[in-house]
Specification:
Length: about 70
């Protein structure tokens, strides 16, 4: 476990642990740190589109399909 490599974390008061957790979550949600799984999916879909763009729809068509004007 990663926390085991940082034994000083166990000594932090609960409130400081919460602050640290919030900072880590903010860091992970920054645009500089995209989710690798999402990046992989987007890259696969982009490649599929480039290989065969005939399956793509316009934004207007997409909105019609999902019932949004």
């Amino acid at each position: 476990m990663i926390a085991e490599r940082f034994p000083e974390l166990a000594k932090l008061p609960i409130e400081e642990k919460r602050l640290l957790l919030n900072e880590l979550c903010e860091d992970l949600s920054s645009p500089d740190a995209p989710d690798p799984d999402i990046v992989k999916i987007l890259e696969e879909r982009w490649k599929a589109f480039k290989d065969d763009p005939s399956g793509a729809v316009t934004l207007e068509e997409f909105r019609k399909r999902i019932g949004v004007s």
